[in-house]
Amino acid sequence: MSETAKLTRGSIRGHLVGQTLPMIFGVAAIMSVGLIDAYFIGRLGAQELAAVSFIFPITIALSSLGVGVMVGINSVISRALGEGDVARAERRANFGAIFALATGVILGLALYLLLDPLFGLMQASDALLPLIREYMRPYALGLPVMLLQMGLNGVLRGQGEARKTSYVSLTFSIANWILDPILITGAFGIGGFGIAGAAYATIAGFFLAILVALWLIRGAQLQIHPATIRDCDVAASSKAILSVAGPAAFSNAINPIGLSVLTALLASQGEAAVAGFGAAGRLQSFAVVPLLALSGSIGAIVGQNWGARRADRARRAMWWSALFCLGYGMAIALVLFFTGDWFADFFTDDPAVIDEFSRYLAISVWGYAGFGLLIVANGALNAVDRAGYALTQSAVRVFLVMLPFGWLLRAHWGSSAIYAAELCANLAGGALAAYVVWRVLRSGPEKRP
């Protein structure tokens, strides 16, 4: 057992609580930014809210690609620490940060150049495209900042520094809480920038989060010293990170890609349906925060124990995590099912948008437990270098269940078919993920092909 990997010792349940609780606060803070954005943008008008509904799946997809990079860095660091190789872990931490920044530059340029074709494919109307451009152009230029911040979070997560990771997330969120009303609608004598103000606030928040992350890493086990890259095998490090980051990025991005297609299908039902779907999606993202936090913390726990040849501890971590997903998923489903109308009033006073908002929640909430099982299982599979399995089951969920269901039944059920498609996909995806991850963890690292 490695003395360099603190998660290979002590209570599994204790580590799950200790790693997940700080992440709940961090993830909740990040998700609250989406709610605050939607609130202040909703004050601008229904068109602006509809524009954000088109933007939301794309920004989530790009964030998911960043999360994939973070997961790749987390995976190689946690397994190296579990094996007791601190020097390799530190080299890959430094290489990972530079890799994340370079990825952000490439993605940002591609997004900036492809904005109009992308949103044209999503069936955004000519009236909404100018509003979409206002937000997406500065957002695209800020992507390198976002990816670097996620890369640094991966360095902290791989070491089991969940509390420090939450401080980084809180920095980003607090900056947005302060800047959103100033930059979107205007405050304190400062004129707002409209929908573009939300993008400016996001970029500023990521920049401040980078500064905090660099400061916190100074007190961690692994340090950021770019000079160590001279001793790094670039090809081997790239391969190690990409073997997880590539599939994990696409696995994380598949769901928002599917939501983008559902948004395009929903556009035929009118702007009210799109606006209600987008606003309720922001609330839903906040509601599943504990599940998202658990999916983020499971990687370091499973990865370190897998690297230390403690598959029994990895299996126990997944077992307790699955029980939490089922219990919390059903509890929050009941809460939102009975309070959908109340939450809808928070976002808009348009009766048509409120009706779609409430209908979406009434249908989709019953799949939260399955969604939790899926993302936590994917986190465990990424940690043990089985990211290809996570990608496959995510693809099955979206492309073989969600999209065919929505496409085939839209003509008969209208917008309800889109909402039911998400429900069915979460139930099927959760069942498949639970089966796959249990089979993998039963094999143990010694039987890895």
Note down, in words, how this protein is organized:
There is one protein chain. With 449 residues, the chain is mostly helical. The protein is 83% helix and 1% strand. The protein contains 16 helices and two strands. It has helices spanning 12-44, 46-82, 86-113, 115-121, 129-141, 143-158, 162-185, 195-217, 234-266, 271-287, 289-307, 311-347, 351-364, 368-383, 387-413, 415-443, and strands at 186-187, 190-191. A hairpin with a 2-residue loop joins strand 1 (186-187) and strand 2. Helix 10 (271-287) packs across helix 12 (311-347).
Features:
449 residues; 83% helix; mainly alpha; 16 helices; single chain; two-stranded antiparallel ribbon; 2 strands
Task: Kindly summarize this structure in a few lines.
This protein has helices at 12-44, 46-82, 86-113, 115-121, 129-141, 143-158, 162-185, 195-217, 234-266, 271-287, 289-307, 311-347, 351-364, 368-383, 387-413, 415-443; strands at residues 186-187, 190-191.
